[in-house]
Amino acid sequence: MKWYYWIVIAVLVILGIATFVPAPGSPKNLIGYSSVDPFVPISGILLWIIAGATYWFGKKKEKKM
């Protein structure tokens, strides 16, 4: 798999984790605490799904070649 797939996957996973970081003064999210992103469980899971799809797509292209 090409190196740029790994960079995209790493960035998406880190961003998914970063959405769960607590941030005082922010509105409460769907889980019930204040965090950087008010749509915490949904946005984090979507970012991880996109990272998984990127991994799958990279592996699929690797087999083709």
Order of helices and strands: HH
The biggest sheet amounts to: none
Q: Report the portion of residues in β strands.
A: under 5%
Look at the structure and give the mean pLDDT.
91
Number of strands: 0
Give the % helix. 55-70%
- The low-confidence runs, each spanning 5 or more residues with pLDDT under 50, are none
Alpha carbon gyration radius:
15 Å
Shape descriptor reads: elongated
How many structural domains?
1
Structural class: mainly alpha
Number of helices: 2
The end-to-end distance, rounded to whole angstroms, is: 10 Å
Give structural notes:
The protein is an all-alpha fold and 65 residues long. It has one domain (3-64). 63% of the residues lie in helices and 0% in strands. The protein has helices spanning 3-18, 40-64. Helix 1 (3-18) packs antiparallel against helix 2 (40-64).
Main features:
65 residues; mainly alpha; elongated
Fold blueprint:
Blueprint: H1 3-18, H2 40-64
Explain briefly what this protein structure is.
The protein contains two helices and no strands. It is an all-alpha fold and 65 residues long. It has one domain.
